[in-house]
Amino acid sequence: MPIPVDQILDAKGLACPMPMVKTKKAMEALLPGRVLEVQATDKGSIADIQSWAAKVGHAYLGTRVDAEVIFHYLRKASPIEVKPETKHPITVTNDELLQKLEREGNDIVLIDVREPAEYAFGHIPGALSVPLGTLEETMKTFDLSLNIYVICRTGNRSDLAAQLLSNQGFTKVTNIIPGMSQWTAPVNREE
Predict the structure, then answer these.
(1) What is the mean pLDDT of each run of 10 residues along the chain (191 residues)?
(2) Which among 55, 89, 152, 160 has the fewest CB atoms less than 10 Å away?
(3) Rounded CA separation 12/19 (Å)
(4) What is the dihedral of CA 164, 167, 172, 177, to 10 degrees?
(5) Choice among 1, 3, 5, 16 that is catalytic
(6) DSSP state of 105
(7) Is 16 in the active site?
(8) DSSP 43
(9) Which pLDDT belongs to residue 1?
(10) What's the pTM value of the predicted model, to 2 decimals?
(11) C-alpha dihedral (157, 161, 166, 171), degrees to nearest 10
(12) How many angstroms separate the CA atoms of 14 and 149, rounded?
């Protein structure tokens, strides 16, 4: 049975952060109470769009997968329901992270919140692969006193992850920007 929607957004073939960028723009133009269908092929869009909708107050109605296409359904909240988007206040640049890893490598927990395929094609040596969609469950095993640095491809997913960790009581959380898209130091690859 087809799901009734008010607007369809085609984000197929786009990689992070573009499905999220286009979703935000489409939601801005949509009237409150209307439903948006986002069609994407980037598996990371599942965690990205769900987390973003929860963070700002829009209703994430659900996901349907048909072959390679992921269909996301969101209902736009009324202006009084929408929360202003916030950014995690503590950040470092890629270069600053590299310096910290050289000086304090053993005292840092580096979490890569990209999808497993992204991680496999190149990640910072020693980084833990914890895709954003699994972070909420995985963080239950972490000590709240850890010095955590979070990285993704562009700084958007890692920002969501840093906020999630901070909201759960982690006090030393840092977002790395601009992330792996501009990382120039050596990386490990999964064979």
Answers:
(1) 88 88 93 94 89 86 93 89 80 95 88 90 95 89 94 89 92 95 92 69
(2) 89
(3) 8
(4) 40
(5) 16
(6) G
(7) yes
(8) T
(9) 60
(10) 0.66
(11) -100
(12) 27
